[in-house]
Amino acid sequence: MGEKSEQKKQFILETARKVFTEKGYKSVTMKDIVDACEISRGGLYLYFDSTEQLFMEVLKMEQADTDDTLEDALSKEATVTDILALFLKEQKKEILRGTNNLSIATYEFFFSKKFPKKENIARKKFELGVKLLSEMIDAGVANGEFFCEDSVAVGKNIMFVIEGLKVAARTIGVSEKTVDEQLLYMIQGLVYEEEE
Amino acid sequence: MGEKSEQKKQFILETARKVFTEKGYKSVTMKDIVDACEISRGGLYLYFDSTEQLFMEVLKMEQADTDDTLEDALSKEATVTDILALFLKEQKKEILRGTNNLSIATYEFFFSKKFPKKENIARKKFELGVKLLSEMIDAGVANGEFFCEDSVAVGKNIMFVIEGLKVAARTIGVSEKTVDEQLLYMIQGLVYEEEE
Amino acid sequence: MGEKSEQKKQFILETARKVFTEKGYKSVTMKDIVDACEISRGGLYLYFDSTEQLFMEVLKMEQADTDDTLEDALSKEATVTDILALFLKEQKKEILRGTNNLSIATYEFFFSKKFPKKENIARKKFELGVKLLSEMIDAGVANGEFFCEDSVAVGKNIMFVIEGLKVAARTIGVSEKTVDEQLLYMIQGLVYEEEE
Amino acid sequence: MGEKSEQKKQFILETARKVFTEKGYKSVTMKDIVDACEISRGGLYLYFDSTEQLFMEVLKMEQADTDDTLEDALSKEATVTDILALFLKEQKKEILRGTNNLSIATYEFFFSKKFPKKENIARKKFELGVKLLSEMIDAGVANGEFFCEDSVAVGKNIMFVIEGLKVAARTIGVSEKTVDEQLLYMIQGLVYEEEE
DNA sequence: CATGAATGAGAGTTCATTCAT
DNA sequence: GATGAATGAACTCTCATTCAT
């Protein structure tokens, strides 16, 4: 597969991502994908052996993108609060960008396949989020910005709220105000002591 | 439809609930349902016009059950902390009882159908949870058990964590320890002042 | 599956047999079968899970039919030469009845699937033919009708000629005269001594 | 087409022959051929207009090879029994060399296409075999080596056994011992008188 | 009321063949 | 000459829904 093919593969992945974002995992058919990509039925199979493989590669791409964004953020000089704010801002964007949120598709996928839960990508993504958050919190505690007794538990708590918000955004709807309110509430929990 | 028929309809709903719980919404076929119910394919259509309607009635039943449980709880004499603890205990049970948790199916359903978000049952359930929590918190604040500035925001926060935990339980796995830790953490946020 | 269904299954098997007879194994599609049976695409799958299974059941039916014919023949009083003549007459019919000869389909099938050769039905059929022939020859030798030193080898020889004729009938064509000539030649080989 | 192209065409034919030998006719895909030849998909079409034409040219090549072998054999001084033994030895090799036996593919091919049977190559090959055998038998009768009343019928008989053995070798399996036994049995039929 | 055989649209997938490069 | 990405018709198989019994 030459360079040109690689571009097309990337194009298909990005287009498929939109489709999965809009329709979830189980409801997406090959026709949806080939129509969106404006390629032939057979053409898709030149790049991906099955719908399952296609979805997994979309997830991998997603992960790589997130990793890049995180690396960028961490390479800049900033206070812990700033970085945490940046992280939450990114999450907020993802929550609200209804048409750009793969969470439902990901849940469906990892639910329908009987993958060992320990190895799945969604779990890795969650754990990475927890790790980042707890490290930020620890740093914040170290320099006096935050107060927190168990940074991992708090990291998990924030991630669970974010997951809850993402799912809610795609199913029952959630306003920007609610997202702001929730994220702010969680930061306040950390800096609480100082505010008193 | 006579009394006997009503019983059969109820039986189908309860059996279907188990199936949706196990397999989600999109993956469930009529065969799954009729096999589980041990009725004929055609028989199912005497009671429900389509799979979609069947699922919606399962959700309605679910809602009714929850309402009953809540009514029971509220009719007894108890401190606010007790009631809140009971509520969270119920939620914990639902989170961990992997095979008894309709959340994934519900997400899939409300995601695949283009229902107006305001009217959907999942939203109503969420809002009811928020209402209950905020009322409990308000009551707790009134009698000095809790400290809280915005009970609705906190109620939402707890509900988002619970939603996040439910989804996580079905997709990436979550330990009982983590559930306990998270629920405890949220209660501590409320009673925080007193602990200092 | 009730009695009526059993009849339909039988009807599909017989119709499929004709199709396989006409077109071989690999070239036959489900569409060919459902068109010939005048049933729906899905209807076929109520009775058979795949083309492979369908063909195997056709073969089983074929075998059962042959067994019946053989049993009939052996239950009647007759000289060995008569029975042998009957057997060869049956074979001749099968060879020449171009549109009623599954051999090519059977060859294709057992060639394309990597079944252990020892267990395949075609082999069993061949071995049964050899056994029948050698028993007839032995009986003929015992009562002085035939002369033969190695009845199994001769039985195999006759079966190989029959197989060769069957294949030839479906591919390069073979006249009735040639079939008669060949079968006669083989019987003469057995009774040779007496003719001298 | 230059000399170089001619070589490539020859190479493709020989490689394709191996593939058809292994997999039959209908099961072979263009991918199988181009992979085996290590050429491009389009490249194949520079030399052959379709898979059908490719197979027919493989058969033609096969025929030419056989002709050469026969010419070689007949150009040498030898007794008729020697030549017959050589012919049968060649046939035995072809029967047992499972992976070098085009018979199944040939049967499939001439069966699936609706060629007039009189003109097909497989028939020509069979008829050539019969002609060669009957000529050898006639010569053997002339010089007293053999006894035979109808050399053409016997020639056909030997060819039918050989065809039967070839098919059996690829489908139900046949041991070298059986092949030897069968070929010997047929020669003994010819020299029978002398043995008495 | 209840059955389950039957339907047919549509899903995923394969592959001979073409054609711009 | 040679490539291999692209096509699209045709394949196998599934399943919600219907309807004669």
Report on the architecture of this protein:
Four copies of one chain form a homotetramer. Chain A is mainly α and 196 residues long. Chain A folds into two domains: 1-54, Arc Repressor Mutant, subunit A; 77-195, Tetracycline Repressor, domain 2 (Orthogonal Bundle). Chain A is 77% helix and 0% strand. The longest helix of chain A is centred in the N-terminal third of the chain and has 25 residues, at 51-75. Chain A is elongated and about 60 Å long. The interface between A and B is large, with 42 and 42 residues. The structure holds a DNA duplex (21 and 21 nucleotides).
CATH architecture name of the largest domain in chain A: Orthogonal Bundle
Largest interface: A-B, 42 and 42 residues
Q: Write down the overall mean pLDDT of chain A.
A: 83
Task: Tell me about the largest β-sheet of chain A.
Answer: none
The helix/strand class of chain A is mainly alpha
Radius of gyration of chain A using CA atoms only: 19 Å
> In CATH, what is the class of the largest domain in chain A?
Mainly Alpha
Spell out the CATH superfamily of the largest domain in chain A. Answer: Tetracycline Repressor, domain 2
Oligomerization category of the chains in this entry: homotetramer
